[in-house]
Design goal:
- By secondary structure, the chain is mostly helical.
- The protein folds into two domains: 179 residues, no CATH class; 76 residues, no CATH class.
- The protein has 13 helices and two strands.
- A two-stranded parallel sheet has the order 1-2.
- The relative contact order is 0.09.
């Protein structure tokens, strides 16, 4: 791409990007992200009927008893389909969005840190997708089964399609964000803000915070669902400690090498 070539030429010549150059770079990164979302949305639109049947409404049909999804507005289904296409396009283009974000902040990184961008994009996207999969196959079935079986038989559970969609989006996206904890720890450790000693010291506090987050994130109030979410969150916290430890070692080693070079 021409803008990527221009940035490399500026770096090679030693020129720093000015404020307007940063704005121009941001504009192109946003445009490329939007293009990715549009392409992802087109792909989703091609398979929209199968996605609605086998992905979006499958959890509602697998509850006991099955939930009845209804449309309350004349334009309700059209709005729902457009919403699924947009959200699906965003999810499908998540790797591209993360890539554009990291490429935008690349000029602020050290030369030795820029080579990790591809790996960071891959693992950031992977963590987000794993969070979505966990929410879809674990949290949603548990919560929907609870809601379907709760209450009296006198009241018939008929769920508005848009309310159902909002419920799915909120649970899945929130889980995807929470599962980014290891990558957030990696980044904060890289810049020296977060240290593994701090995370170990406040591990007990983290357990309490995880239980509170699990109670907030879990749609159903039963303790089993909360524990099912708390366990992977605690595992993610322990993984984050290890990632922070490795990242800090590499950072300290790099600083030590730079000091040695400067002293010589």
């Amino acid at each position: 791409m021409e803008d990527d070539k221009d940035i490399k030429e500026q770096e090679a010549s030693g020129d720093e990007m000015g404020f307007l150059d940063h704005l121009e770079e941001l504009r192109w990164r946003i445009i490329k992200s939007v293009i990715g979302i549009i392409v992802g949305g087109i792909i989703v639109a091609i398979f929209i009927d199968d996605i609605m049947t086998f992905v979006i409404f499958a959890p509602a049909k697998n509850t006991n008893p099955p939930l009845t999804i209804i449309n309350l507005k004349p334009y309700g289904q059209f709005t729902l389909y457009m919403q699924v296409i947009l959200i699906g396009g965003i999810i499908a283009s998540v790797p591209n969005i993360f890539y554009q974000f990291w490429k935008f902040i690349e000029p602020a990184l050290m030369p030795n840190e820029r080579k990790y961008i591809s790996g960071i994009v891959f693992f950031t996207s992977l963590c987000f997708i794993v969070g979505l999969v966990f929410a879809y196959f674990v949290l949603l079935p548990t919560a929907l089964n609870f809601f379907a079986s709760f209450g009296t038989d006198i009241i018939l559970n008929q769920i508005d399609a848009n309310e159902y969609m909002q419920f799915i989006i909120s649970v899945c996206l929130l889980a995807g964000i929470v599962f980014e904890l290891p990558m957030v720890s990696f980044f904060l450790s890289k810049v020296g803000i977060l240290k593994p000693e701090f995370m170990r010291k406040y591990r007990k506090h983290a357990v309490v915070a995880i239980l509170i987050i699990s109670a907030i994130m879990t749609p159903s109030p039963d303790i089993v669902s909360q524990i099912m979410l708390a366990i992977p969150l605690f595992i993610l916290y322990e993984i984050s400690i290890y990632i922070s430890k490795v990242s800090q070692k590499k950072r300290d080693s790099l600083n030590s090498d730079e000091e040695t070079v400067q002293s010589n």
